[in-house]
Amino acid sequence: MVNRLVYRPEFGILDSPVHPRELTLLPGVPAAVAALNQAGLAVLIVTNQPGIAKGMLTRVELDELHRVITEQLAAGGGRLDGIYVCPHHPDGVVPPLAIACGCRKPAPGLLLRAAAELDLDLGGSYMIGDGDVDVLAGAAAGVTTFLVANLKPCLVELLDARGAWPDQIVPDLPAATASILVSAPGARIAAADPCGRTHHSIMSPDAHVATYLYEARMTLEGIDRGAVRDMLDELIAMKRRGGRLFVVRHGKVGQHAAHGVTDFRQLTVVEGILPSDIANRGADGGSGMRSSLSGWFESSGLSSDDLLLAVCVDGQELEQQPGPNMLQAMRYVKQRGGRVCALLGGHAIADRELVDVSVVLPVVGLTATCRHAAEAQSILLGLLASHPEIGGVR
Questions:
Q1: Burial of 126 per CB tally in 10 Å (0-12, 13-18, 19+)
Q2: Helix, strand, coil shares, percent, the chain, to 5
Q3: Which of 39, 69, 221, 331 has the most CB within a 10 Å radius?
Q4: Domains of the chain by residue range
Q5: In the predicted model, what is the mean pLDDT of residues 249-258?
Q6: Checking DSSP bridges between strand 144-148 and strand 126-129, what pairing results, if any?
Q7: Higher pLDDT, 132 or 257
Q8: 189 pLDDT exceeds 60?
Q9: Average pLDDT of 297-301?
């Protein structure tokens, strides 16, 4: 991940360097480490070295390799804050080291030790590696994980089989660094790729496709199916009592909410209603919009048979940002004995006194939260509208 591999013609394989003269850092690695240093983040190497237990490598030889790494990083402005090594292996030939230990990745021992010795916040830390053991160790320690990989179908199957899906998949260390600098609290430098590439060219097409589809899949799998079932039950009950569906939306979801209403109108016998003037200007306008919304509801003849669906994927608490108009709509419906459902994105938390059923779309990925939430929202609206007890031929 940080150095070039070495071809061993006698074995016909690519291998890690074992002599200092063989060690060359990959392009962009020193600059990436320097960028993390400048952002105030500690940078560590956490490595399994079973060759020591197997008698293939001495600790002195490993220290010499690490010295070369340190020198090459320093030449590019980078600095390591520590190197943590597991020298053990159960099949080793060096008696003291031939053990099953708690520090060999995928165990989190080395990460926990580093956190204790350097007073690190694991919740705000990152593990970057090119193997499933790195991802598993990072997940066990509670850190954000990056897998450096060029995804292929066989790798996807392997990660699935081992339960080793990372938080993000990147093509190299500079790409991981760029993502970390976007998200790291208190980072003091701009989030530019240390290699000078633009953000749009960080991922190869294959990696982008695999990462995007993985994040979309994790978004859908993270949805509480019980809450979706409860929302479906609310819609079925509304239909049986002859009620109507009202939809209000907030944030970057206007078109998705409008498309959802169209699904209900085209696929079901339930009438989906979205006030056009409110939709065009959003449910978070000023007092004029609140008066317009109130007047619209009064003229609609809303009753206790009706249901309000509030849609917001901004990922903020309902009482803070979805705005007074959406809250007013909820209160109006509840005051008249109607039912309220909410479809929310990110970490949004509905006021339980205002919302009977809420479905929260989880945050997946560092940069595509709203996009994936909006996509999942459209799928859920289609799911609700197409259920046999809701859908019908008009």
A1: buried
A2: 45, 15, 40
A3: 69
A4: 6-220, 225-386
A5: 60
A6: parallel
A7: 132
A8: no
A9: 76
pTM to 2 decimals? Answer: 0.52
Mean pLDDT of all residues belonging to the chain:
75
Task: Name the nearest CA neighbour of 247 among 354, 379, 341.
Answer: 341
Average of per-residue pLDDT across 257-272: 65
Distance CA 62, CA 44 (A): 16
Span 6-220 CATH architecture:
3-Layer(aba) Sandwich (3.40)
> Six-digit token pair at 105?
């990745």
Listing DSSP states for 176-232 in one string gives HHHHHHHHSTT--S----TTS--GGGSS-HHHHHHHHHHHHHHHHHTS-HHHHHHHH
Q: Which residues contact 346 (CB under 8 A, 6 or more apart)?
A: 313, 314, 315, 316, 360, 361, 362, 363, 369, 370, 373
* Cα distances (angstroms) measured from residue 47 to each of 90, 165, 271, 299: 16, 20, 61, 68
CA–CA separation, 377 and 278 (whole Å): 20
Rounded to whole angstroms, how far apart are CA atoms 380 and 259? 12
Q: Given the DSSP bridges, would you call strands 6-8 and 13-15 parallel, antiparallel or unpaired?
A: antiparallel
Return the biggest CA–CA distance within the chain.
Answer: 85
| 163-192 burial: b if 16+ Cβ within 10 Å, else e | ebbbbbbbbbbbbbbbbbbeebeebeeebe
Is the CB of residue 118 less than 8 Å from the CB of residue 82? yes
| Cα torsion 210, 215, 219, 222: sign | positive
Closest C-alpha to 394, from 265, 228, 246, 219: 265
Cα 14 from Cα 127, distance rounded (Å): 24
Q: Can you identify the CATH homologous superfamily of domain 225-386?
A: Glucose-6-phosphate isomerase like protein; domain 1 (3.40.50.10490)
In the numeric block, the tokens 């165990």 are attached to 107
Q: How far apart are CA 74 and CA 81, in angstroms?
A: 12
φ/ψ of 381, rounded to 5, equals -65, -40
CA–CA distance, 155 with 132 (Å, rounded to integer): 10
SS3 assignment, position 168 = strand
Residue identified by tokens 């979205």 is: 274
Contact 19, 3 (CB under 8 A): no
